[in-house]
Amino acid sequence: EKMKAQGYLATTSRQSTKTSNDIEQRHDLDPNMNELTIAILNCSNVKSATSDHQPDLYCIYKFHDFLDHDTITIPSSNNPNFDDRTQYPVQMDIDLDRYLKQSQLTIFVFDDRDQRDDRYVARADIPLISLAHDNAIRGTFDLHNDQGERNGTMDVSLKWTYTYLPP
């Protein structure tokens, strides 16, 4: 059922399958190698599109040129605790720098019980420019539904393993 989310995100061929040990070794050999950890901690006060049930929520996002990432589904909760952490090995180059300065991380929240394939329950848009200045992003971000109305909040964290060095 999570396939309905694929209409919102494009997939690519790059994968995030490297271990932290691999990144450390690659960073030692190439100081332009870094690792970004994206953590979706929780959501609060998220309502389903229809008021007849509590939502079964999960999140999907796409970072840079990696494959889409989805969290586990938390059943029957308006306040799911995802505690989802993913590490992305990245080459600190001009493409990544441009992406960080010009893009945002959009995290979509879906209700697994929703029968309509064409709508998300909420989404958060997180500007990434702070990462280009070697600053972590931590905070609570407003969620909005597909009508643009506020629909809860999301706690996230994005941080580098090593100092970010712009090209």
From TrEMBL:
The keyword Coiled coil is assigned to this record: yes
Keyword Ribonucleoprotein carried by entry: no
GO biological process: non-motile cilium assembly
Keywords recorded for this protein, A-Z: Cell projection, Cilium, Coiled coil
Record-level GO cellular component terms: ciliary transition zone; cytoskeleton
C2 domain boundaries: 15-141
UniProt similarity note: Belongs to the RPGRIP1 family.
Protein name (database record): C2 domain-containing protein
